[in-house]
Specification:
210 residues; alpha/beta; 7-stranded mixed sheet; 18% strand; globular
Amino acid sequence: MDRELEKYILDHSTPEDPVLEELYRQTHLRFVNPNMSCGYIQGKFLEMISKMISPSFILEIGTFTGYSTICLARGLKSGGKLITVEPNEEIAEFTQAFFGKAGVAGKIVTFTGRLQDMIAGMKEKPDLVYIDGDKREYCDYFRLTIDKVRPGGFIIADNVLWGGKVFDNDTKDQQTKGIIKFNEMISIQKNIETIILPVRDGIMVIRKKM
């Protein structure tokens, strides 16, 4: 995004929460690939969507350091729950500390592993699924969750524009191939409606029809 435009957006939006500001800064100081953190604009968008839906149950695929997790959890109904799935167990202590600082630790259950290893035992029907895991597995994530999402529920997928690399159909990069294949698969589904928004690296909002 153009820096002048981004500054204008930030100047005319609710200021970033101090806990999230610290989380974002610590992520950049301590972790490889800190750009995987969604950051303020996207995080606030996710928080707003969650508050609009007021979900009882959220499933998040890909926690990283927990910025998006906190934002999504803030929109849960009273007594609601968010399950976040993350294969990297080394960052769990860091994320749990910030869940506590943000006051949402009691709403979040962290599963360390792959979605494929836990989805069969999940009894709840998500009102909202957020996909931000391994891009090579996006198609699997959709197939595994769409039947579990309640009718009228939502799936949000991050990085669907993938830095413009979605135009490179001859790519050898498996992550890029995963995003391209996912976008193509979604475009031919009959039981959903969808829109891609040019927020950060591209956000797809999918609604499951009744």
